Amino acid sequence: MKAKSIIKSYWDSILLIIGMVAGGIIGVIWGPGASALTPIADVFLNLMFCIVVPLVYVSIVTSIANLKSGKEMSKLMVSMFAVFIITQLIAALLSGGIIGILEPARGAILPSVTEEVEVSDVSFNILSQVTVGDFSLLWSRGSLLALVIFALLSGVALRAVADKAPYVITGLNQLNQVIMKMVAYIMKLGPIGLGAYFAAMIGQFGGSVSGPMAKMVIVTWIYAFIYMFTVGPLFSWIGAGKRGVSQYLKFFLRPAVTALGTCSSAAGVPVNIQVGKEMGISDDVNSVVMPLGCNLHKEGACLIVMITISLECSLLGLNFFDPKMFMTAVAAALIGSMITGAIPTGGNVIIMLVISMFGFPAETIPLIILLHTLVDGPTTMLNVVGDLSSALTIDNRLQSSRTKLQVKGTD
């Protein structure tokens, strides 16, 4: 009976894993021909990308409008940014330390550039990510950070006139329920969509890596999974005790597999919000932390920056553990993880940030882009799952604060 209960709890995650494994096998056997399955993957991914925009906007607006006081909003924001910064700093230091010690890319040599790589059109202008020039541009997954800010303003404004607009709040709450039901329906296609995506990806890149680059990719994948199974529960325990660890281990698989298969933090938002509700995270926290975390909290992006700089140091014969080099790398990891947003060119933005900050030669860009492509899955997985443990911590802090206030009120 217990085994049946466990299988039932993880059934959705098991189906996603089966789909990805089957897709990987098809990719290995079929090779480049597996790209024929790309349209199937695109159907699932496009549905996820379409639902994420209304989900982010409606969930943030309703969560803020339903808050009991402005003081709660302030506490939520302070707690959220504190947790985001601390966890990303730990992720950067830990990732840099482990990758630097193992030095998997030792012996790598700079390849001859056989094709021109266009990254000149990529910008990491912060202003362009937090604002847009036209209202219609808000409703794009490429403008998620701007949409989040607009949703925050909308929620604050709606809360200020809540007594005059009760039907608006009720309507948005009902719309939020409809959107969550749509997410549940879309996720039914997950095993097929992720399987097709994985088959196409393995078929395309399966034979393109060897030598030090292969070691770097393998180490990154292994490290990402070890991090998820150890640091994630540790953060959950620090934030919410044994209950946090239990909840994390029970629910993290579904968003982890979704992120691994889609390589998109944005596609992970609907799943994270759905799972957060099942975990019992309060709607106030769940509906704000998950969308904002998608843009501002990316532990996997910290790993990407550190492995990028480690690879550059191996290629150029530099000392990764030089104090100035290492601390600048940590700073780049924090900045890169918070300003890139969940945008399609996010990886290229990080590349340009690192190249600009360190003055690395442009000849290394093709190799860095290949590396980012091959480790995009596990690093995105850390981005998405990291929001779960952070949300648990933030929710527990706010619940403890509310309990203390209630105790004081009864004294």
TrEMBL record:
Transmembrane feature ranges: 12-31, 43-64, 76-102, 144-162, 183-206, 218-239, 251-273, 300-318, 325-343, 349-371
Q: Which UniProt keywords apply?
A: Cell membrane, Membrane, Transmembrane, Transmembrane helix, Transport
SUPFAM superfamilies assigned to the protein according to its UniProt record, in alphabetical order: Proton glutamate symport protein
One Pfam family recorded for the sequence: SDF
Q: Which GO terms describe its cellular component?
A: plasma membrane
Q: What's its membrane topology?
A: Multi-pass membrane protein
Q: Which domain of life is it from?
A: Bacteria
Q: What is this protein called?
A: Transporter, dicarboxylate/amino acid:cation Na+/H+ symporter family protein
Protein's organism: [Clostridium] asparagiforme DSM 15981
